Amino acid sequence: MTDIGWKHGNNIDGNGMRVKCKYFSKTVSGGVFRFKRHLVGTRKDSESYATFPDEIKLLMMKIVAEKEIE
């Protein structure tokens, strides 16, 4: 799995559909893209945390925004 999201979460099931955040104890269902939304804190389907490193949040925001434009 080469997606940058895997640097910040662990694959729970081995199929990439459940990801456990390395920063918080939250497990996100729906794959690595939805997990990146968790890191960003988009209102669509996830939440973010105030203590999350800004540089990682900004990187994930850029990735999510680029994907939504496609």
Helical residue percent? Answer: 25-40%
- Count of separate DSSP helical elements: 2
* Strand order of the biggest β-sheet: 1-2-3
Which overall shape is indicated by the principal axes computed on the Cα atoms? globular
What is this structure's SSE topology?
Layout: E1 9-11, E2 18-21, E3 27-29, H1 32-40, H2 54-69
Antiparallel strand pairs: 1-2, 2-3
Helix pairs in contact: 1-2
Short description:
The chain is α+β, with helices and mostly antiparallel strands. The chain has helices spanning 32-40, 54-69; strands at residues 9-11, 18-21, 27-29.
Describe what you observe in this structure.
With 70 residues, the protein is an alpha+beta fold. Helix content is 36%, strand content 14%. The protein contains two helices and three strands. The chain has a three-stranded antiparallel β-sheet with strand order 1-2-3, with helices on one face. The chain is globular, with a radius of gyration of 11 Å. It starts with 8 loop residues before the first strand and ends with a helix. The mean pLDDT is 81.
